[in-house]
Every structure is written in structure tokens, then in C-alpha cells.
Amino acid sequence: MSPSPSPADSRSQSAAHPPFALVEDPARPDREAEGTLLLVRRFDTPFLLTASLTAGAGSSELTLDRGKFGKGRIAEFRRLSGRAVLVLRDKHRLATGGPAAVRAGADSFARSVIWSAPVLREDADGALVDPTGLALTDLHGIADLLRERGQGDYTVDLDASYPLPAAAGARGVRLPALLTLRGPGTGAALRRVTPAPATLSLVQQVHLVPLPDPPLTARPYHPASGGYGIGHDDHGDRAADGVHVMFQPRFRLEPADPEAVSGPVRTPLVFLVDPAVPEPWRSAVVEGGNWWREAFEAAGFRDAYRVEVAAEDTDLDDPALNTVWWVHRDGRGWSHGQALTDPRTGEILHGRVRLGSQRVEQVTALAEALLAPYGHPDETARLAAVRETVLARMRLLAAHEIGHALGFMHNFASTGHPHPSVMDYPHAHVTVGPDGTPDLSHAYPAGLGPWDHFLVAHAYGRFADESGDLTAAAEAAGLARLRREAAERGLAYLADEDARGPGAAHADAAVWVPHLPDPFEALDQALAVRRAAQAGFSRGAVPPGRQTGELEHRAALLHLFHRHHLAAVARLVGGVRYAYAHAGDAVPGAVTGTPPVPAEDQWRALRATVALLDPARLVPDPAVLAVLTPPGIRYERSPEYVDTRAGRVFDPQAAVESAAALVAEALLEPARLNRLAWQHAADPRQPGVSDVLSALFAASWHPDDGPDREAHPVSDDRPDRDAHPVSDDGPEAASERESLVRETAGWVVVRHVMAAVRGGGPHPPVREELKASLRSLADRLAAEPGGADRNPVRAARRRETARTLTGFLADPAAARLDPMPRVPPGAPL
Question: Going by CATH, does the domain composed of 251-488 fall within 3.40.390?
């Protein structure tokens, strides 16, 4: 019985004669899916096993997207007791060397048997097994993900799951199936997207992908390369050199002349764009994706890379193709670039990108909020600006996500580069034009930056010695030269862990900021844009055929427009600087260790950040509040809106809380407090924990004083109150409303301090300093007569606040804490 033929890959012996194939079962010719058998040609031969989804759940929260590719695992078939047994090996522990070393490495770590089936027949071609059970196995980990995301315990219902027609191709075998999982049906995310939440049906494709033979020559990974690194522990013969090895991920891209450094390539690198992307966004995706062509040409590869639209009948799930999928979801979500890699060498075998279609809606909403174009005398020009802003963002998004599939990490330090990297997260660069309205004409940059050229050269470039020979020594020298030149040009590189999350400490790893090296200038510019856009806010911020309740969403975008610029300034407080390197690297002028941000910059950042607690910056502009109405019947507020505790109507106090939370979250993150304490102990000129708390309490509870005000004024950047008054109802009403706004913001600050005290993140001395500051605040509030006007109601509120703080300090573990204000999501943009 002969297997059906598969296209051959001329570069890979394993593709020409893979370890498995599909054959028709003559006993079941009328049942297409169940009439296919798997032919195992070679047992004990490693291959890659993964699973993708071709029909997803459509939830940004669950990430079970159409087109999502799962983790790659190393697997092999074993022959045991008349059965074919599928065994997973740990891809993070791979031994090399002689047979004994490889065997010792393999036998030292656990394996996982995930499936087996009886061998039905066996001949010279191999052993035949029925792969139905494998196709119906939840290899993607759908049930585990649902459990982790709080949706309940789901399991595969085999009675409602069915194998679909299998396929063999140039890159292995695919076993698709309709998987139905049953569970409690109570998860909120599933209820939003599933017709019957107790039953979730997705299409999974199990991929059996041969490993390349011969493998690509691995390129060692360097932490300053900008690649994301593929690593494992090698417990074989090379253990004396260090067990952990890391490789640069990259596609196999070779000149037609194998001895040449540059020239035409044997097989171009092509990405196919999902024809489901509608115009004009499709053309923008193709254009932005093709920006990388310039870098490959500069690295010496002619006609080596292109992006084009796939034909309508293209099988996008074929791992022999590199694809860009158009994915729809419920709610704001991320786009993704993925790569299936050979764990032995880092070779990228398949690149896949998922572009979230809702990004068009998100950028459109922001641009409409800024320009309020509908019904404006200049409506045509403003709508053209909205459209071009979205197109520019989609070009950049395509280049960014394809960059991930090419093997590249984020670079969140490119704001200081001559031209930003497409691997950065860009915020729209908006200014205030001469007419006093927001200007989006340069919202997003076009084309690659110098860092992107470096990425391609470092991952894919070829290097020869003086004799023209391609040697490992020449490659190492060439790569070191590229890194040295990048450092000398000031092309800083900082990736995810140093820019996002609670451990991020680097002062320059700013996320979602425009291309402005000075974070203070960026914040000032954002506040000016925010003020101008709010002053011009009207019903024209929403298309005329949409319900007016959507104005709340647009208002929230403007109210929190400065959120990322604020974070970029605040991270200077307690911030440090450092660089990625090897211990043996010698780069003149490179940063060593983790020196703190200079004291004057930290104090300036503290002043600029706490100044945002001024009521004039916490309350939306009267022009905004004047037009907001609740959502219409059959409409509801989404997570994009500011929460309300004012019934059906917009809640200004909740808006104050959201804006104040941006400040409190940025400055009171426990790791930042710990760094502040240490930096201040080492250098008293640096702000300490009590300085930060004094500044926050002064800005919210006691605006007329602050810590060492003459030496370090809390704010030298007070807003123009006439441009954005808290109240226009007379001095008495203005005073009362300002007090209410300050106390609302003050409670946000206090709740964050309480959470830090009780959360366990601060070191004990830092925690005690936090408690001492709260106690001082309580003592002062208890003694106050209610402010300059001796308002008795205000005095009573403050005495009650003091009692609450005192009760908390008596037993922080037992005290009830109100939930933190929810800040509407601000990313991705």
C-alpha cells in the first residue's frame, strides 16, 4: 500500500522522505475523514508536534483566535507492545555529542506519553495506525486555558467531536478536527461570544512537522542582538562550556551561490496576506510588510523577501507558507507575530501573523475623538486625516508583527533613535496646530529605522574572512562589529521585561510614547493636545448615525490621552539605566551596572507627575461634560468606558479616580518603592519613599504645602486654571467641588498605599515607612478644622478619613479595602 505523494523540499532530506505520511484506508473509502490512516515510516525519529486553530472563539480575553499557532514540542513515535506510542521530549533539554552522551541526556529527564494506537498493519513502507484519537486530543490546551482564565472546567466531548479531512504537504501532516468542549457555561468571556456557553466548538489542526535534515547552522544568540533567542540546556559532551545554549532565531535564507556573501537567494522569503483583509487596509498591510525588503537588500540579499496578497483559495494553515491572518474578536486585543522554530538550531520553519481587525476601530475612535470631524465646517479634511491616521497605523502594525515572525523582539528604547524602530510600540504623535486644534498629519512614522536594519543584518547577514571564506570566526567578528557600531550610534535596545510589568526599572524603556526623546516634552505636548481636544469636543466626535451614548467612550479616550506619557515620566522616579551585553564585550562608553537616574531628573519627574493630581487635570473639560448622555436603550457601556456609580449617567468622580489612579499606580508600585528606599539611603539627594508620599498627599489632601517646598517644590507646572476650570458656578461652589475632587484623588492615593502595605511587596522597612506616612496623614486630618474656610462638612469628612486610616493601621491584615478604581484599557493602540 503506497502513501499519497507529498511535495518535496529540495533543501531537506526529511521533507523528501518524511518519517510519516497519510494513506487511504481501502476498508473505509466512503468516510473521508475516518478513511485516512497515518503511516509511520520511522520510529524513534524526532519531529515537531504542534496544534493551531482554524476556527476560534473570537474573544480577546481568551486569545483562542482563528489562526493561533500553539507551542512547538519535540515528539517521536515509539513502537511498544504492538502499538505506536507518541512520546514528547523536553525541548529545553537536548543533549548533543556521541551516542552514549545523547542517550544519557535523553534518559535523565522525564518524557510524556500523550497518545497511542494499535499498529493495524505493517510492511516495508512502515506501520499503519488510525490517527483519529490523536486528532481529537486537545493538544492546543484549550481546556487548560479556559481554566486559567476563570471560565470553568471544560473537557473534550468525544461524542460531539469529529475528525476532518487530513492533509499532507511540503511541511508534514495535518490532522484537523472539530473539537467540542463542555463545561459549566458560567464564564463571562465565553458567555459573550458563544451561542451556548456550556458548549464550545473549535477547529484544531494537529501538525506533525519533520525537523530539517540537515539542520541549519546555528547562529549563537547575543542579548544585544534584538532577537528573541531560542535556548535549551545541553547536557551532552559540551557541558564543560556551560550547559545553557542560546541561538538566534532566523529563517533559512541562502544565496544561490552557497559560497557567496550576498546575491540572489535560492528560495525567497514570502509572507501571504489573508484576502479577507478589506481594502484599503489590505494595501496598507502589504505596503508596511514590504518595508522589510529594504533591510534584506541592504544585508546583501537580492529579491529575497516580499509580502503579497494570497489567492482566495490559499490554505493559510499550511505550515509550508508564511501567512498574515485577519482576526475578529470581541473587545480590544493584541495582534501577534509567531514563529515555529527548530529547537536544535533556532531555524524558523513557519511564520504566522494575526492582525486584530478591531485595531481599525480603535484608532478610528481615537482620531475621531481628537478631531470631532462630523458636522464640522472642515469635515471632509478632518475625515481624510482620520482615514490616513488609520492607514499609517496599519502599515506600522503589519511591519511590527511580521518582524516578530522574522525573529525579532520589541525595542522599547527607540524613541532616542534618529528614526523609531517598527519593533517599538508607537503612540500617535499628535500636536496642536496653529489653529489650536489637534494635528494628526504626522501621527505615525513610515519605513524602517536604523535599528530594524541592524536586526536583519545581525540575524541574516553572512560574513567572510579576508580570504573570502565563510567561517565561524568571521561571523563572530562581523556580528561584534555590527553591535559595536549600533552602540556607537546610540541605538539603545530594551525589551519587554525592562519596559512592562512590575519588575520594569529602566528609565528609558517607555511604552506607547511618540518619537520624542524627552519624556517631559512628550507629556507637555500630550497635555496640550488633551486640553485642545476636550475644548473642541462635541457630538461630532461620533458618526451621525450612531447613538450619543458612544460619546462617553470618546470622552474616556481624551480624558486618559496622556496616560502613557505620564508613565514615561514617572518611571524616572526610582529609575535606573543599564545595557544588555556579554561579560567579555568591550564597547566604549557603554553603561555598566545599574546607575540610578540623576537626582535632579528624579525630582523633576516627581513634580511633573504629582502635578497631574491638580483638579484642573482630573476633571473632564466642561465642554465634554456638557454633551455626555447615557447609552441608549439596548446599548450598554463596554470596558472602554469609565465606570459609573452615579446610576445611568456619566460619573465625574469615577473619571477623577481613573485619572488619579494613573499617577498612584505609577509612583506606588512596590518594586519602585524598594528602589527609592535603597537609592535614597545611598544618596540622600535622591527622593525617598517619604518624599514621594509627601508629594502625593500634598497634591491631593494639602495643596498648600509639600516636603521641603523651597528645595524641591511639589509642582512648578500648575495648569492654566482659566483654560480648564473645575467649576464655573461661583467661588463657593468652586471651592467645594475642588475639595471633593482633591479628596476623591486623595482616597485613590491612600488606597494604593494601603494595598502596598498589605500586599507584601515592599521590604519591611519600606512598609513601615508607608505606615508612618499614613499615620502622619491621619493625625493631620484629625486636627484640621476643615480648610481655610472652616467648612464643617469638609471637616467632618476629614475626621472620618482619619478614623479610617487609624483603624487600618491598627490591623492592616483585617481591614476591608475598597476595590481599586478600574482604569479603562489603553493598549493596544
Answer: yes
